[in-house]
Write a sequence for this structure.
């Protein structure tokens, strides 16, 4: 149980285009999903928290207009990198949590490696 | 403020050696959650352990063991008789503001096990 699927696993896009990354909870309903970003050889940094049916909460320094998050259903959250540039190239990974209480942990997807050329 | 420090950036050992990865954390929460994850070159995060702040019992799982000491705010991870397949980046993480869902990660330790 507690499987989170992220798609695509790898994507290469041209500078200026937008790319959408999907995060799905396969066997549970995820009231909350989290998006992290990892630059090469660095740690994971939380970008935003998305709650089903409401606007995402972005961490300081994350451009909400560049990284659009939609959590329209209890099993799917999407991250759209708009007008991507080479500096957006990174590893993006989501996590999903089945509960609303603090002691409910989140489960990670496989990650998406984005390369902007 | 929350912080997780993994002072060891890279560690290299020869197969069958024991190795300990250090993790020191800072939090003002009285209830908190600590995690260890393994990240192989493919990138996915492999969950290893979760520990609650009110449970200081050490844990052993096969070749893996964890030493949680609240007095020193440390949560160290030991691999006994290391194997080449253990080569990966290991992250220690702390649940944000008493949550187990939203995590603050350490900078990671790259472990290389040589044959």
């Amino acid at each position: 149980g507690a499987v989170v699927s992220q798609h695509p696993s790898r994507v290469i896009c041209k500078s200026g285009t937008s790319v959408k990354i999907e995060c799905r909870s396969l066997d549970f309903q995820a009231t909350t999903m989290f998006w992290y970003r990892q630059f090469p050889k660095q740690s994971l940094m939380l970008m935003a928290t998305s709650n089903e049916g409401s606007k995402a909460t972005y961490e300081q320094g994350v451009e909400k207009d560049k990284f659009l998050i939609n959590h329209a259903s209890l099993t799917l959250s999407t991250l759209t990198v708009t007008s991507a540039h080479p500096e957006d190239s990174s590893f993006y990974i989501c996590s999903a949590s089945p509960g609303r209480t603090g002691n409910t942990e989140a489960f990670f997807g496989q990650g998406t490696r984005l390369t902007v050329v | 403020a929350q912080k997780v420090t993994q002072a060891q950036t890279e560690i290299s050992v020869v197969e069958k050696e024991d190795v300990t990865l250090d993790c020191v954390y800072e939090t003002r929460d009285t209830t908190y959650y600590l995690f260890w994850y393994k990240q192989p070159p493919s990138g996915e995060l492999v969950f290893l352990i979760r520990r609650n702040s009110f449970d200081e019992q050490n844990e052993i799982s096969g070749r893996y063991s964890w030493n949680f000491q609240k007095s020193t705010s440390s949560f160290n991870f030991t691999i006994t008789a290391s194997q080449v397949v253990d080569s990966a980046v290991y992250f220690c993480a702390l649940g944000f503001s008493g949550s187990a869902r939203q995590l603050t990660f350490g900078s990671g330790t790259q472990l290389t096990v040589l044959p």
Remarks:
- The interface with chain A takes residues 31, 33, 35, 37, 43-45, 47, 50, 52, 91, 95-108, 110 of chain B (CB under 8 Å).
- Chain B has a mean pLDDT of 94.
